[in-house]
Amino acid sequence: MKYRRFGKTDLQVSEIGHGLWGMGGWSGSDDKGSLDTLQKSLEKGCNFFDSAWAYGDGHSDQLLGKLIKNNPTAIVIAASKIPPKNNKWPATSSDRLKDVFPRQYVIDYTEKILGGIGMDCLDVLQFHVWDDSWSDEDEWKQTITDLKAKNLIRYFGLSINRWEPWNGLKAIQSGLIDAVQVIYNIFDQAPEDQLFPLCEQMGVGVIARVPLDEGGLSGKLTDEMRFPETDWRARYFGPENLHPTVVRANALMELMPENMSLPEMALRFVLSNKTVSTTIIGMRSLDHLQEDVGVSDGRGLPEELLSRLRAHRWDRKIAPWSD
After folding, report:
1. Is pLDDT of 171 > 90?
2. Is domain 3-310 given the CATH code 3.20.20.100 in the classification?
3. C-alpha 184: how far from its chain's center?
4. What pLDDT is attached to residue 271?
């Protein structure tokens, strides 16, 4: 496993991070299997684990806490997120900060997350949604400053709304943002336009999420695939998105180098961008884990292939099925 500096912080994070969303409520997940996979992930060199209160109302935080408890001498960098108080994803400029992240609510949920994980100080706390119309408001700034001063959190970040990489630029310029989590993959290349250059300038760590487009870049999606109604992917890969994704993924398969799968090519695309600190993957099985962590070997994709992959950029807009 290779490691990269997390922005201007003192953290060295594994290039492959472990996302816990699938362990908090997706179909087919069970706690024993989740803990076994997390343990193997740690043994394989992953040290960055990304959770959120919304992943099962604190369940994924508890799983992460068990991993830490079972490995008291290991380096585990724990990140989690506070859900919006109004339970609205994504946030928009019509939402008021006081209805989404009021001061006492942020403090209360920070303490809940710490309690669930079993930590006194969280490595990275994030707001699970954001809108840049809140950037100039003093309340969130003072709250985050106080949480750091009280040693309840080390660093603070934003989870940027799906397909809105520009919606956070103003907040980053405040100097209070240590990290951003943003969707970045072969299809979703828009963060390269403005967000990544600003992160480089400001020393902000980049957590690239959804590197496989929720499974669209897994190489397994077909027009006939259906997910259980209780699974979030049933909505994401509904009629409006399933077929277009299959068509685009099939086109990418024609570019795959010999002995390289589509997921490997997709992950190597993300890691070829040096602005990325870590990319988080929902590794729920040992087979997936073995494949994914093996990509962190320092070998990026050739520039010629990267150039061809950039032609597959897919600029999308928020839709009712996408969040």
Report:
1. yes
2. yes
3. 9
4. 98
